[in-house]
Amino acid sequence: MSRSAAGREPRRLTRWWRRRSLRTRLTVIAATAIAVSVFGAFQVASELLDWELRDAAENQLRADSRVLAANAEREGPAQVQLSPYPGSGRLVRVVLPDGSVRTPAGQPSLPPVSEDAERVAEGASADLMESDDSDEDGYRIYTLRAGDGAVQVARAVDDGPVNRFGFGMLLIGLFCAAGGGLVGRAVARTGLAPIDRLTAAAVRVAHTRELDADIPDEGGGEIRRLIQSINDMLAALRESRRAQRLLAEDAAHELKTPLTSLRLNVELLMRLDRRGTLDSALPAESRTRVLNDLGAQVAELSTLVAELTDLARGDVSDESTELLDLADVVAAAAARARSRVPDIEVALDVTSVWVSGRPAALERAVLNLIDNAGKWSPADQPVRVRLRAEGASAVLEVDDAGPGIDAADVPRVFDRFYRADSARALPGSGLGLSIVQRVVDAHGGRATVARSARGGALLRLDLPAADPPAPVAPAASGEDTGTR
């Protein structure tokens, strides 16, 4: 088999195993674990049983040999009486000094005397325990020095008890493996029952699209944490769906008014134009006013669509976070506000404060604050923008000299599409400050509303300040003044 084919086999087995259900895998693991445990216990028990039987047999051989050796020492190895072989049991043999042997009448022959046993008969050693497994009728033989020779007592090695024990353990192992499979199946079914109910609930949610029903919290440990996590996910999905529905409803409501006005003005112009009475029915002054209204409505729709798009994106943004000087961001936002509304006057009082954030998002938030203040400030009063460091925060304040915000409206100033009664006649969508709130939240800051010293509204942003970047050391000049 090639190396590549051999490498594919484990991968094929791994893929097959991964395709099995969790119940099947738990069943196989339980059955295998029990089978391995029984096999290991069988091996240990077999070794212990074999050792015990061998030790008992050797002790019996030593005891029998001592009796025979005592007789041989008393009568001499050549004259000691050997009883006829009874047909079963132990086997005996006397080894004479010349290497010859004496055996009882009718006794089966034993293997030849080994060299080690001959040395015992010669007196080189006191005793010897040896086993002969050269054929099916193996013997365990004990040789003991007796007089000027030696006596040997032997017994046939009987593996029957160990084999019968092993067969019994094999049957027990098979039954245990089968029982382990059944137990593993039952345990898997019981343990995975919460997972089944969880799966059924998830499938039901996927099919019905109903996110209102939480999955019952049952079980413990990992199962409970999994159910709680899925319930949290369902709650987040419900909140997301609610936010999407609210955004769609609010957008439809806010878009209805400018679209209706725009449609009426366009239809009026088209009707008069078809009749050929545009110049007579609509004087130049009225026509200019209608066109200005159309331009203002288109601008309002453009602003509203841009703010809706920005708000619908939520916190999703491709803009990366960077270390920046907030004073530069405020100055850029003030310049944009002046270009959009030339009549607005912005008074800046800023100091350098470094923050870590998204420059475009922060500039949009500051621009919205200035635009909001510009709607309320009288023509002869500027919008004041102040930036300073205060402790570990960068504090931005934007105030106007308008009528201020009523106490009843303060809690809802940063809500989407919320507009106070006094602001209904002013242009705007009610999204500017909600975008400010979202940007501030994304940067870990806080937005608050208060009354300014000039009587108008004071909107304050507190953002976490950052350490300014280390100054870059000027490169050392190596100018050679010796040559020109």
State which percent range the strand residues make up.
Answer: 5-15%
The count of β-strands is 12
Write down the overall mean pLDDT.
76
Q: Choose one word for the global shape.
A: rod-shaped
Sheet bearing the most strands, described? Answer: 5 strands, antiparallel
Q: Share of helix among residues?
A: 40-55%
Distance between the termini: 80 Å
Please characterize this protein's 3D structure:
The structure is a single chain. With 484 residues, this protein is of the alpha+beta class. Helix content is 53%, strand content 15%. The chain has a five-stranded antiparallel beta sheet with strand order 2-1-5-4-3, sandwiched between helices. A five-stranded mixed beta sheet has the order 7-9-10-12-11. Strands 6-8 form a two-stranded antiparallel sheet. It starts with a helix and ends in a 20-residue tail after the last strand.
Task: Give structural attributes.
484 residues, alpha+beta, five-stranded antiparallel beta sheet, five-stranded mixed beta sheet, 11 helices, 12 strands
Q: Briefly, what is this?
A:
With 484 residues, this protein is of the alpha+beta class. It has 11 helices and 12 strands.
Which SSEs are present, and which pair or pack?
Blueprint: H1 3-19, H2 22-75, E1 91-95, E2 101-102, H3 115-121, E3 127-132, E4 139-146, E5 149-156, H4 160-191, H5 193-208, H6 222-275, H7 278-281, H8 284-312, E6 322-325, H9 326-340, E7 346-350, E8 354-357, H10 359-376, E9 383-390, E10 393-399, H11 432-442, E11 446-451, E12 457-464
Parallel strand pairs: 7-9
Antiparallel strand pairs: 1-2, 1-5, 3-4, 4-5, 6-8, 9-10, 10-12, 11-12
Helix pairs in contact: 2-4, 6-8, 9-10, 10-11
